[in-house]
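Revision sheet: structure tokens.
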Amino acid sequence: MTVEEALAALRTQEDPARAEGAAAYHKAERVYLGVPNPAINDLATQWRRSLPLDARLSLADALWQSDVHEARVAAAKLLTQARIRPDDNAVWQLICSWVPDFDAWAIADHACTAGGKRIMADLSRLDEVETWTTAEHLWTKRAALVITLPLARLNHPSGPEKEARDRVLAWAASYVPDQRWFIQKAVAWWLRDLTKHDPEAVRTFLDAHGEGMKPFARKEAAKYLPA
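Predicted:
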């Protein structure tokens, strides 16, 4: 499948009114087609099932480079898969190459969902993600927490997974002095999700760092803590 064919398939679902609203909401300068997420998901699932890995990588890269909002979402969905055989390194590297392009939460979050699965497949990739934690680029710094959310959602983490979780919590602690809304929101999101699986770790974090968080972030982080 060519990128032109994929874009044409997306355009069959476009909605100008929805596109106008999406452009106003996301506030990032690019083309919006107004295609709803379920339709994007259906197309990406179809392509993912029908294309071999090398073709999917090429299509995902071309869709991303088109800079069409829905095409970038589809690119991420093409690579969102728990197991990728025989080797997922090219997938990981492609996702990482997208991170400097992040400029709004929706596309970034879809790409991080794909990347999170690659991290859970190989925790050594946290070494690369750790370099993002000191980035000046807001969205790169934020991505370090969003892409590692699967670690916060584990019910029964293994020893290495527990160590990885603690490592990311240390990153979150280092983010507390950064008062930018999206950074505070990312810290709160990570802690809120962890609450459902390890509330005591969240209590410990908030006891140590809660006073430094913005009030809205501290409140959201504690949203599901038992009384």
